[in-house]
Amino acid sequence: MYLIRFFKNIYGRKIYFQIVFMMLFAFGTATAQFLATQHLGDVIDAVGKGYEETVYQFLVISVSTVLYILGTAAFTFLSGKITAAFSRCVQTKIGMKLCSAQYYAMEQMDDGDLLAMITKDIDSIKNWLGLSMKSGFLPVCLGLVPVCLFRWCNWKFALLALCLIPLNAVPSVFFARKLSPFHDNEKKAFARVLSHFTESLQFVMLIKAFQLEQLFQKKHKEELDKYRKTRKKRMFFEKLTEEYNRCYGHISRILLLLLSAYFIYRGEMTIGRLTSVILCSEFVGEGLKIVGSIPLYLPAAKVGVIRIQKLFELPNEAVSGNRIQTSVQTDKLPVYEVRKLTFSYGDTTILHDINFYVYQGEKIAVVGLSGCGKTTLFKLLSGLYTPKKNCIYFRGMDLATLSPEYLRNHITVTTQEAFLFQATFENNIKVAKSDGSKAEIIAACKNAQLDSFIQTLAHGYDTEMNTTIQSISNGQMQRINLARAFFRNTNIFLLDEPTSALDSGTAGAIWNYLFADCADKTLLVILHDLEEVCRFHKVLVVDNGNIAAFGTHTELIQGCELYRKLYEEKMANRRKVEL
Description:
Elements: H1 2-11, H2 14-46, H3 51-100, H4 103-107, H5 111-134, H6 138-152, H7 155-163, H8 166-202, H9 204-209, H10 213-265, H11 271-312, E1 336-345, E2 348-358, E3 363-367, H12 374-381, E4 392-394, E5 397-398, H13 404-410, E6 411-414, H14 425-430, H15 438-447, H16 451-455, H17 474-488, E7 492-496, H18 504-517, E8 522-526, E9 538-543, E10 546-551, H19 553-559, H20 561-578
Helix pairs in contact: 2-3, 2-5, 2-6, 2-11, 3-5, 5-8, 5-11, 6-7, 6-11, 8-10, 8-11, 10-11, 15-17, 19-20
């Protein structure tokens, strides 16, 4: 039943009507096929009854055959259209879920699992949907034909023929129950193979630089071997089912022929009726083939639904009201007020009792050793992670109660990772704000020191990225990130190491823009290179998830040993590089 509910949740109530309609359509097509089959035997016996009877039987066969051919073609087209539309609908809903799910929950998802859902799981469910619509053949194959056997043949013959049907159906049910765990294990193994492929693509430069080809090839072979073993187990049971059905079909035909020969010998069956029985036995075989497909399609469909449902059950980002108190002048409140903030990944606490204030227009540098919690703090401030209530206040409002849309309309975040769309330079920048003008895009690129590079290209801002341009450097990617941020032009910037891949001249020009032209904007920057740290109003020093110090550069040089050590090391390294 949960398969039917899944169909409804994905496609709406109309899927019920479509399935029923297609089952009735299949029933009509099967009926036409049955009439043609039945009258093929009757036309043989009609030869002895005269010309008119023979012509009548021939006309019935002709009309039934034409209806069967047309019905089969229409059924194939319509069922394919419905399953394709259903598949597209599932993929659309998965895409929507990936965009609406909480960032923290999405971080836990494996790329291979997602790719397996979009490929194997959807195909498995689509196959079961197609089989469900085709089940309209069964009332004719396994219902009408057995009833007619009693009318045509000796009751003993008909009864024995009917007893052959459960001998096929019962093992099918048995194998269906056994196959589910094998399908689940196979898809998990397939997901691991896809994950390894995506890792190889992401780190291909690293693999070559450190000569890790053998290591990755070995791991890839191991994952493929695991997938092969799980697939082999699943295919063994499926092949066992198929071979049973095939052998059963041969044996049942031989039994029917022997019995028919016996009844013909006794004069209880004609040659024409024998022809109909043989052809109808093939027809029954079509029905049994559908029944035999149940253990092949049902377990895979169940596993696919369970896996996709788990994705759909991921929590969405909050859409609660913004709860803005209009009586309070938010411009006089701190932009951020962090009170006793603690955050954990599972049982591992990353941030401990964090407290600080950030006011409008302040430029704050966040520094500390790698892994100390700086990026986690930024994800909390930007709303990617949802903090506990009463821990972070944004302009006097509890950030935990704000909708993501409200928060992101007021802040701009750049990460260390950059992404590109298959589009022009202009559209890649414009993605940050859909209603911006070409002049604003050019101004943002100039401020990000990107315009001069774009102007060297044959098509300028209309140059296709990822196609015309074969390689984008890390520095150019970083400037694309900054151009998007400057084009968006909100009052608050949260920047994660925005100039780490840039040369000192380019970085200096960007810092000049941020401190001079953006003087009224609030700026929080995770800073690794401390060359520009003196220009910030305050420095927040994070140490193992705690605030080690918060103050001006001069105050921290004098009063914070960790900060003084970090600053002196960075400056010493800078002098070595210059020498």
